[in-house]
């Protein structure tokens, strides 16, 4: 049965799942296919292994556990495109190849990259196993998302939840595929957002969560006011975001800090810093004689209080700073008073430094919680804010777009350039594909020399120009024009420059570039924060200010360039996977499609070139050794290892699966497979091999477990009766089967159970009623209740007179009070229930009691009361006005193993001989592997009210039973039995005979009975039987369809066996019948008959109707005079092997429209 899926075959298909299959490879065709799928809510599309994702701007229904189960372990082509398919492929490749994997998620801001990253981490967390420690790592991985989003995401014009930092999350795995560690690398935090935002944007989410989510006590301690109170929040005038609940998100952020392991007192300090930054932003300055002065000193108190510093020192450090000067080998410190602009810059620098270091602390806390000392395997997820083009693009956009250029270069290197170069190196036939290589743009930005790049020019200006503001920025622009002004991807304008990025032209405003590139925190501010009374705040500023500073300080562009190159090196060491995210509109509304915007993204992402390379290239390549290691199990020659050249071994494997020659090429060191379907063929055959071996191992293991389980069950069942009841020698070592009725083939019994109700035990029992009359019942035990099923004759209705199954009683476990048994070796037991009791007899009472005790304890949480007594009183069901009351069963010692029943009024006396001692236990050694036969087991006993009970025929060979009697009393010594059986005496009373073979339990279950062999020597095979003599047969020349219920139908060339031959004349026509023995050859009988009603005639020995054309000579065979038909000549002396042979005596045939001659022969077997 096919699994249901959101895009299964019974759902309308939209476009093509894999754009490699597009008939036209143009940007317009790509955009049209994406639009068609997007409008039908299919946001994922493939280009080979590359996943294209279009942001739907709404929650889609296919991210549930059902989809996780559907994609787990499935090949890419088996299900519709999905981020789960890419993640599962990445995870399995890591385990199979033992190589680190990474996924690079690229696209512009608002295209859905962060959401895709969260789904990837969620899927891995679901499908990977592990215990408590692994679950703790999973929790931290998942909880890191809300924490980092709160401190690192913000609302921008283009995205309500834009990542304002880069994140590379490595999930580390053990060799078994369990996530046991992780590591986060963060870069490019947009610190400038802390102090200023553009119109219609917000600061980082944590500020608004703090204002909305804190309780009244927290608000008072932190001095929380409304958002418009704070300068760092009121610049843009935007405080709310549609679809965002800041109060709820704050609770999730605090819970995340708790899961990660941040102490409670540190959590308070984190909130103090966040609130302290808000209050610090409200400190403003006025100009007083070219010097800055704090406008309102009252505003200094609260930020100083929250950060544990002195308000006066804070005021001093915001309005002045120390400068070190050297003169004549002497150094001295000079205090310089700052102007208003410089004071504002110092305040903002302190706020940005506090926030950036706090963010680094949170990332480091996550790493400490999950990072392990050594790495085995890892899956990396790169989530970085996408390419940005705003009305005003500053230093942050320059850095962001540079990193995106580097990521695009990786994509080009590994999917376009490297692939084509590999084909040339391996000698593979290949048609080159042209593409744009953006390395020239990366060199324009990051080159150090020949020619000097923009970042190097920027660093040089920052090192040589000490002034701030317009002077340094204008100098930067002039130097760039002189250095890279002639570059084909660079242009300048009056206040900035333009770079031709892979995603389009971006104009950058040079104002503020130098200031933000310096990224220097004055030593005065570091010293100020190190004086805090809070150790946590001091730990955020670990610099040693006493050491002499040598060399230039590291600039922001240098840090970013190093981080970007380190990231590229890390990614290049992994096997990369790609998700290309597309933003369909700027309105952020679902089902809104802007054609030109999507087409532009399709162009700069290089999707058309990607499709062309994919169609012309090979889907899979592996070095010979790894290919052999992977698929060696497919043939005996390559398993466990191949003796010979690796290339020949690979060829042998490919030919063994009959792969077409045009589906693969052999390189110098690698094999290249063209289509994924060919690879899937290899994988499927490999899975089948492993499946076969796994089934063998599972079968052996299950047999072992089942044997242990049944031995344990037998021991537990024996413990119930141990030292309380005598045992029967033929059942003490019996294996437990459970279902002795074969309920899987008994729907008439299953109808009384719930649809999926499991059956623990089922057998046929004897129930004794109030008069001690035995009645057959089917006893069924399930985890829910006990069922007693009988049979009654239907008294009315359409099924009147039929015997139907009837549910006589259903006992819930909670209604059962106890079970009573005797101390003798009989098979009787009483189920005591609140309403009335049931006296039952079953050979399998021990197995039933064992299972009943387990289910009873599971349901009621208490043990079942079991009593042993030779006088058992039980209550009977009240019927009508009378009845009810109780009955007594008395057990007495007798002779033999046969139970004798003697009812007397309300008392039943049961006499039975001594059994095995009460201390007997099952023996595991030499225990017979016996099960119960397929028929019902009917106990043998004599009933002394005159009626004898029916019994099966006994087995003639007794089963040898081994048992142990650890503490046998002297009186319990069993008589020694003669090994030879005495001659069988005439049976006078079958209940008094001493042959107890009928008590032997069959060796097999429902599948049939197996007895001990009576023949010990192997007889000689009998001679070959004589072949059955073959009578005459005939072949039909024409097809005939029977016109009545007793007529045969046959086709042309059907072979028919003849039972008797002869000719009968039609009595109505005055003709008589003649017959002959089987004739080996054809014979012809001339007939002269008158026309009957003008419908049939005989001409020259031929009888026919007007509508039928027969051959010239006719032949008729007769067996019965009831029906007749005219047959044409088709008797063959030696007919060829028949296609259908029909042999048995049956009805004759009737010719239409009149009967002239009778033909009787064998009908088809299928007609009976």
UniProtKB/TrEMBL annotation:
Q: Which residues form the signal peptide?
A: none
Every SH3 domain range: 1029-1089
Give the GO cellular component terms, alphabetically: cytoplasm; microvillus; myosin complex; plasma membrane
Source organism of this protein record: Takifugu rubripes (Japanese pufferfish)
Annotated ranges, domain TH1 = 725-914
* Residue runs in coiled coils: none
Q: Which GO terms describe its biological process?
A: actin filament organization; endocytosis
Q: Which CDD domains match?
A: MYSc_Myo1 (cd01378)
Residue span of region Disordered:
913-970, 1005-1033
Its gene? myo1f
Q: What is this protein called?
A: Myosin IF
Lineage top rank: taxon:
Eukaryota
Q: Which UniProt keywords apply?
A: Actin-binding, ATP-binding, Calmodulin-binding, Motor protein, Myosin, Nucleotide-binding, SH3 domain
